[in-house]
Amino acid sequence: MTNATIQEIEGIDDYWGPAFRSIYEGEGHEAFVQQLDERIKQHDKEIEKLCNFHYQGFIDSIRELLQVRSHAEELHAEISNVDANVKDTTDSLCAKAEELIRARRVELNIAATIEKMELCLPLLTTYSKLKSQVEAKRYYPALKTLEQLEHVLLPRVGPYKWCAQISTDIPRLRQAIQDASMADLRDFLENIRKLSPQVGAMALKQTQDMLGRSLASIVKNKKEGISARESTGPQCPHELVDFSPLHRCLHIHSVLGAKNDFIQYYRAQRKQQARLVLIPASVNLHDSIQGVKNYLNAVLGFFILEEHLLSAGAGLVSKDWLLDMWGMSVTKVASTLRTNTSLITDPTLMLSIKHQIVLFINTLKCYGLPTDPLPMLLQEMAEHYTEVLMQRWVVVFRDILDNASFVPIEVENQDQYDEVMDTFPYDGEELETQPFPRKFPFSSSVPAVYVQVKEFIYAWLKYSAGLGLCGARRAAAARQSASLLLSRSFTGCLSALFRRPLPLMQLVQIIVDTQYLEGATLCLYEFISNITGSELVTTQTAGSMFQAARDDAEQQICDKLEKKVDEFLDLENYDWLLVEPTGQASSFVTDMLSYLSGVLTSLEQLPERARVAAVRAATNRIATRLRNLLLDPAVKQISSGALDQLNLDVIQCEQFAAGEPVPGLKEGELLEHFASLRQLLDLITGWDWSSYLHDIGIDGGKYSLVTPRDAAMLLEKLKEAEQKSSVFSVLKKNERDRRKLLDTVLKQLKQLQNQDGS
Amino acid sequence: MAKTYDYLFKLLLIGDSGVGKTSILFRFSEDAFNISFISTIGIDFKIRTIDLDGKKVKLQIWDTAGQERFRTITTAYYRGSMGIMLVYDVTNEKSFENIKNWIRNIEENASADVEKMILGNKCDLEAKRQVSKERGEQLAVEYQIKFIETSAKDSLNVESAFYTLARDIKAKMEKKQEASNPAGARTGGHQLRNEPQRKPTSWLSRCSLL
Ligand SMILES: Nc1nc2c(ncn2[C@@H]2O[C@H](COP(=O)(O)OP(=O)(O)OP(=O)(O)O)[C@@H](O)[C@H]2O)c(=O)[nH]1
Ligand SMILES: [Mg+2]
């Protein structure tokens, strides 16, 4: 038993429980512990035996180990050494390797950069091209470049900072280009403003050349022109202007998508310019032709350029717009010219202006611009021109009349004779045969005025030349102006002439002269027909053109004669208490009558009518004055001697009147002026009271022209004188009877007077 | 009725055409001057009343045409004249030389006792003068006639010429009246009638034509 259990324990490694339980529970404990001890003693012996066996080997191993230890130490040193050596050599190698790595990297980088740069290069060159294009003001290519830059190159390059910069720069550049092109436009506008007068001038010149073109001049021009043509300047007026800036601008704005804005802008600018052009540069156009020329040149130039743009068709100018603006402008031009020309007093200037306007109109037609209301203006100016001419000629006429002597022209020889005949249409048949000196019936002012009227007609026709009027119309208008000149201006001058006192003979001559002038009007009309090349139209004869002036002159003659009569009568020196008449007419009466008959004879060139009027006026004045003398209340007494003297004087006058001092009077008509005086004198001197009182109130009575009042007045004077002369003397019987009768008659006359209430 | 004058003197202006007769008369009667020359045709007259020693003297001054062709007409007026002005132009030698002819005309046609006076007109035109004042004076002495230089333009001596002539006529007339009427009791307005009539018919009635 116990042996088995130890075996069991030793046989089983871990399931020792049941073995222990059987020892524990069985009785063999001592045996077992003995066995166990034995066992332990056995194992100890075995261990000892084992140890003895292995001891030498162990010592040897230790000894060997110690040996290994020193070898290991040796090896260690050696290895450390090697290691240091290796370390040394690999350090530089490592550095190189690192360098190499870096260089490789750089190399790669460079390659990459070059590659990138190559991509950027076109962008940059384009950009610089853009810059230089802008600088060179080649805005349109610049814009194209910009486009390329923006849409092609920039996206290709990539998100670099500078690209971004360029990108942000692009709108700015675009704006700058737009601004710059605008500036160019402004320069252009400025430029055409300066050039348009030249354009207008050239156009006008071309029109003028065209109008004045004749075969000869064409040939001449051709000959001269060939050499001139070679060095050609512009052929058309608009070629004076370089429109390219404008077109460029238009392009640019089209590219920028602002074409319409641009057109609007352009038109607005031009409209403003037009407004400036329409205000004349020189304030007074009526001072000189240059002002008008400049003005018209500028206006014309302006519109020629617009018209050119219209036909160039870029859309800058539309026909409606142009016509609209032209319509506004031409009205303004017309009104400006109208205002200015209305102040002109120089006909030459008027002519030049008219010429300029005609040229202007013709040029407008060439360019298809409507000319209204300019023809109307020309018409108005024609009236003003006539007016101005008339004012001129008033001065001329006044000058002629002021310096005229109004004596018939007398010529000494054939030359002088021919000179008059050459200047004035006079039928000299009668004069031709007379010996020198020959005397024309008219004064030198007649040919002078005639020549001046012709001059006027020449001057007048100058205006209507080139207006495209037909000969007949021009002639009619010229005739009208010429007769207006004579009937208004010349007659006005004549009237002015009459305002100053003229010697009688000169007045007569003026009347004669006007007749010759009137007679010559037909020749003037002929003259007009000749130079206008139209048929002579015999209008109404200008017969009474100067009748008013003649009436004036006649009136003056009458006034003059009356004044002379007055002067003579103022010399009257009657002695109203004369006892014995001298038996001779008073000297003032005889002086007067001989003076008058002298004057009346020298009036023989006067028309009969005027002479009759003159002699009537004079005789009437004489009769009136003499009668007034007799009835003058200041003369209180008249002796019969004085009455006889006056009667004698009146008889002288009556003889004069009866002698028909001028032809053309009705039989005895002048005597009628003396009739009432004669009746009064006859009544008193004939003492014919009974028939007077009997006939009173009966028409056609012997004394029908004597009023009771006059009769009484004279009788009273007679009575006064007789009383005075007989104060101291005793009256004879017949004298007493006479006195009595006188008183009765006086009483009766007074009664009659009272009846009449006069 | 109060008379408008005490004396009536008829004066005559003669001399070559253009010497200034009309101008002198125009200056005297109107106190005006006209530069333009309108030669007188036939005859004309002007009247001006002047005051001489308190007397109203009416001057009827006849202006004749100087042109030869009017000679017959104008000489008819010599007879009735009481005073004659002989006018020449100091700038015109010929007009001066002709004074002698004019004097001969007077001697042949005017009444013997007519008062005369020589006027050298246009003395304002010193630069154009052809006849010296001395020669004028000499001629006057030669004929025993009064002489004065005048300018119608500048109104020089025109008044005084007429006054002198009028005064001389008046003096002569008064002397004559004194001789014929020593009492000298005169009233205004009678002098003219007292003047002896030289001819039965008026001096003027003989000329039928101017
Ligand atoms: N400078 C100047 N010119 C004068 C003077 N008197 C007259 N005249 C000019 O001389 C010219 C002739 O003057 P009139 O008075 O008409 O001559 P007239 O003697 O009457 O001539 P007839 O009538 O032809 O006889 C005119 O042009 C006058 O202006 C004068 O005193 N000085
Ligand atoms: Mg005269």
Automatic annotation (TrEMBL), chain A:
Coiled coil regions in record: none
Keywords, ordered alphabetically: Coiled coil, Exocytosis, Transport
Annotated Pfam families: EXOC6_Sec15_N, Sec15_C
Gene3D superfamilies referenced in this protein's UniProt entry, alphabetically: Dsl1p vesicle tethering complex, Tip20p subunit, domain D (1.20.58.670), Exocyst complex subunit Sec15 C-terminal domain, N-terminal subdomain (1.10.357.30)
Cellular component GO terms held in the UniProt record: exocyst; membrane
Any one of the GO BP annotations: Golgi to plasma membrane transport
Exocyst complex subunit EXOC6/Sec15 C-terminal domain: residues covered: 374-717
Exocyst complex component EXOC6/Sec15 N-terminal domain mapped to chain residues: 35-203
Described purpose of this protein according to its UniProt entry: Component of the exocyst complex involved in the docking of exocytic vesicles with fusion sites on the plasma membrane.
Family: Belongs to the SEC15 family.
Protein name: Exocyst complex component
UniProtKB/TrEMBL annotation, chain B:
Family: Belongs to the small GTPase superfamily. Rab family.
Protein name, as recorded: Ras-related protein Rab-8A
InterPro entries the record matches: P-loop_NTPase, Small_GTP-bd, Small_GTPase, Small_GTPase_Rab
Compositional bias segments (type: Polar residues): 199-210
PROSITE patterns from the UniProt entry: RAB, RAS, RHO
Main location: membrane
One Gene Ontology cellular component: endomembrane system
Compartment(s) where it occurs, according to its Swiss-Prot or TrEMBL record: Endomembrane system
Source organism superkingdom: Eukaryota
Keywords: GTP-binding, Lipoprotein, Membrane, Nucleotide-binding, Prenylation
SMART domains to which the protein is assigned, alphabetical: ARF, RAB, RAN, RAS, RHO
Topology within the bilayer: Lipid-anchor
A Pfam family: Ras
Region annotation (Disordered) ranges: 174-210
GO molecular function: GTP binding; GTPase activity
